[in-house]
Specification:
Elements lengths: L8 E7 L4 H6 L4 E8 L4 E7 L6 H25 L9 H24 L1
């Protein structure tokens, strides 16, 4: 990419798959963004086809998405949910409400004992 990147963006490059089958199945190029997160002292590498966004926007979006993924993983582990049956906003709101209510009731019960 031609633009000047912020200091946290280590790499912003266009890459293409070169294997015979890979190139045949996906001939378009990807965007490779390497980002250093000073807050967590961690380096992230993202492979995306979002070429219209800035490299910093790509990094921030993927970082926020990862936090959402971790949140749902935590909910599945602690509520013993095997599968989410819906993905609409209303369904997810119901999941969060049940979780909050159940944890509040459990907290109250344990604090009464």
């Amino acid at each position: 990419m031609e633009t000047k990147n912020p200091k946290n963006i280590m790499t912003d490059a266009e890459v293409k798959l070169t294997g015979y089958l890979s190139e045949k199945k996906y001939p378009e190029s990807f965007r490779l963004v390497r980002y250093y997160d000073e807050e967590d002292d961690c380096e992230f590498t993202f492979l995306t086809n979002a070429k219209q966004l800035s490299a910093l926007d790509v990094a921030n979006l993927y970082k926020k998405r990862w936090l959402i993924e971790l949140f749902f993983k935590w909910i599945k582990q602690h509520l013993k949910i095997k599968k989410f049956w819906g993905t609409q906003q209303r369904t997810l709101f119901a999941y969060k409400s049940v979780w909050l209510l159940s944890h509040t009731v459990l907290w109250l019960l344990f604090n009464m004992i």
